[in-house]
Write a sequence for this structure.
């Protein structure tokens, strides 16, 4: 597999998927093999959620980070499957917290088996991952993963605390994003450097790269919630506005619009509207004041910062792939 | 503190609480000190649930197990606070799963702040505990705790799978109980032996002791759900019957009653009755067939088995205290 990767020319994301297909297939095998509970319900529900179309971006990043740091063994694939378990556990709980019925067009576990099952299977997946990870006997892996999990939970709670809070600042918004999304991606990248037995400086660089692309991804995702083509404005858009979630484009808009518009905006948020008319008005306002451009520029700034963090890594096809993935994080393609 | 403990005469549970008051107060300090999140909501909710009248039986067992294995340091107190975090995290999720509004007469976190907060604070407490525990750098502690957490999640899911299942056997019931309640108490006892640097045989003995008293506790608790004095039959009783939960006294009754009674019993369970009349009929049937005695005898049998597991421990006031706690696990006093 390694040889195949080294001869790959990586121009875009589809090349990355192609070049690392072998590794990613091995991750899928791992994900299936670790579903070994004696309780049938556990395996059924886990299989449903683990096969619901996730892109495996965290496993991919862990593997790329390990390879970029010179690793040629198989532990990265094992850890990659487990980081996807952790990610999936958080999705299960997030869907219950957000009362979501659908994820990527499929019914959520909560919708199919009830929230009880979704909560407990989330707990199970998380614990199963920790059990396996502890088996690696790496203090660095244990610390960076448990810290990431704590930060994710804290990030979700920060977000709940600020819901409907008009006073949230850009700095606080970015802190939430860093916690809820940056932490696990940072941990994935650091874990890659750890299995490669990279020096502390390289481990730190991998962590900061992951954190920055994680933030970039979330900022872009929050922005695209307002920025899809007009004609498709509707159900899948404006989710944050409807939930009273204040994200970067809205923060920008509120700072730059007129007092009258700000007052109307507050009313719209108060009503938690799902109405296309009001959402369209907010989007047109954002376009007028450049809020969407502002937020997407910020996201791209995090991507650039992330790439700079990779400087201590020697040039390689794997490092090139990490650059490509960094750009992909703020694209509309996922 | 140690000196005070060694001069204590331990006749009953109140002596245990008195003799280890210093250690237990130190655990409370630990519990408070670890609530250091920068998110105010996290600390508020954690403080509420951690101060809601739990007996700290797991922390006590961890400390007693450490002392019985000859430990005189302070790590047991630190770990004891963390095992209570894990226990509290499971309570938060259980209350959401069971749609509970009250716990020990106080409103649940879900009732006060919503299920979203209860789920996420449960996640946070669990992760915070794992973060701190990883800091102890003990592979044995990491393994036994992560394994216990996995088993608890699995136990809760087994229980959900079997809900309303008439075919559950006594063996399957005991497997659920061992997972959902025995696992963490076993881990607490083993962790005590680990901090004491006890040999593998003693660690195993502590684990089996904890597992057996955990099972004893749950069987007794399930039985007392049917066995409280007649006049108080009502809301706080018959919870399991109302939820379609098949526990040991009901399993016994179903095996021993007449076909007609069994058919009526199935109807009663089908309707998920909260009606005093039907519950009273079930309880009177259990009394007639000796189902409550049978289940309580089984619980006491687990206590005896637990005590036998302690044989490898040298005699001490701490070992005496472990015997007293074992008896306490099947009493009506908690």
């Amino acid at each position: 597999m390694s040889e195949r990767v080294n001869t790959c020319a990586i121009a875009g994301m589809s090349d990355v998927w192609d070049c690392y297909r072998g590794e990613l297939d091995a991750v899928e095998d791992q994900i299936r093999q670790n579903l070994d509970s004696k309780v049938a319900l556990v395996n059924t529900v886990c299989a449903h959620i683990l096969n619901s179309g996730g892109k495996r971006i965290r496993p991919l990043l862990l593997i790329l980070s390990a390879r970029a740091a010179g690793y040629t063994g198989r532990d990265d694939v094992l850890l990659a499957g487990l980081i996807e378990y952790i990610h999936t556990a958080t999705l299960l709980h997030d869907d219950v917290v957000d009362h979501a019925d659908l994820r990527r067009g499929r019914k959520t576990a909560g919708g199919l088996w009830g929230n009880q099952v979704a909560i407990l299977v989330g707990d199970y997946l998380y614990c199963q991952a920790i059990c396996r990870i502890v088996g690696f006997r790496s203090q660095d892996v244990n610390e960076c993963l448990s810290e990431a999990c704590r930060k994710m939970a804290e990030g979700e709670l920060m977000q709940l605390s600020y819901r409907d809070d008009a006073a949230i600042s850009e700095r606080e918004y970015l802190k939430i994003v860093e916690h809820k999304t940056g932490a696990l991606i940072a941990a994935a990248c650091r874990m890659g450097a750890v299995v490669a037995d990279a020096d502390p400086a390289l481990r730190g660089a991998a962590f900061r790269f992951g954190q920055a692309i994680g933030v970039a991804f979330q900022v872009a995702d929050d922005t695209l919630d307002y920025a899809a083509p007009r004609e498709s404005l509707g159900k899948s858009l404006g989710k944050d506005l409807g939930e009273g979630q204040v994200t970067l484009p809205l923060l920008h808009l509120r700072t730059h619009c007129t007092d009258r518009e700000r007052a109307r905006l507050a009313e719209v948020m108060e009503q938690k509207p799902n109405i296309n008319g009001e959402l369209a008005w907010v989007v047109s306002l954002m376009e007028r004041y450049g809020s969407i451009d502002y937020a997407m520029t910020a996201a791209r700034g995090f991507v650039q910062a992330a790439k700079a963090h990779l400087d201590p890594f020697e040039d390689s096809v794997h490092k090139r792939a990490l650059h490509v993935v960094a750009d992909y994080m703020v694209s509309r393609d996922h």
